[in-house]
């Protein structure tokens, strides 16, 4: 249960706490976007390829030798088939969507957290000034809410919007102790986090299988080589080399791409979970009758330091100071 502080230097009189609506927008003082926190997924892929191929060329190798379409078909085709066998279509779609975010470096930015804190403050301030029933029109249909319409990044986060709306409905219904409300929100967060972790788990398992599939391709290549054992040495050497490329590709794709991408998906899921956790902490403080600015401060403290708006930034916005 989150205590509700009765006296705090963080609180201000009502005239100072009531911000002009236009200044509550995250765009007022925060033009940061996800660009500032982007990962370098595509650069990492190029670096892996550059290092491997560059070292191969430095040793006098020929890149053309590594291009073996049959080996690629065997390895990647078998990998794709194993995914289709073991993974629901919904999770496959999630994998594709999440990979796009990882490769483009999409993450939760400071500006998005600023919007989240602003939404919470305006919502809590409305409940304090006009009563909790004033929240109903905004909670019942968030997409048509004039309050949420001012925060485009927040309204696009459907899970966060539904989490907020459903939790406020429970608070308005009454009769739920803060510790029970916390348990309810934890159940929601754990369920969503488990669901969002599925793409990472699938990709990691496929990555684990890639060296084995590379060996399958190599064994098939050796089988073909044995059929031409009486041929000239050049032909036998070419076929053995092609078979070994299968093992090489399986290991490279596993440890150079699939495993790092799986880790990237896991990090993405954790960042999104942190966003919902900040929302949870703020709502719990509100349910415990903390003043709006204090409830928002509880939420702010749950944000990672590199994307956390400072208290002064939040206070200036809430007091309508430029």
Question: How many DSSP-defined strands?
Answer: 0
Order of helices and strands: HHHHHHHHHHHHHH
Distance between the termini: 35 Å
Shape: elongated
Radius of gyration: 27 Å
Number of helices: 14
Structural class: mainly alpha
Average pLDDT: 84
Q: Report the sheet with the most strands, covering strand number, pairing sense and barrel closure.
A: none
Number of folding domains?
1
Q: Any low-confidence stretches, pLDDT <50, length ≥5?
A: 1-37
How much strand? under 5%
Q: Percent range for helical residues?
A: over 70%
Give an account of the 3D structure.
Helix content is 71%, strand content 0%. The longest helix has 55 residues, at 233-287. It is mainly α. Mean pLDDT is 84; it is low at 1-37. It has helices at residues 14-17, 41-58, 63-66, 69-86, 89-104, 110-130, 136-140, 152-156, 158-173, 178-196, 198-227, 233-287, 292-301, 311-318. Helix 6 (110-130) packs parallel to helix 12 and helix 11 packs antiparallel against helix 12. It has one domain (82-95, 111-322). It is elongated and about 90 Å long.
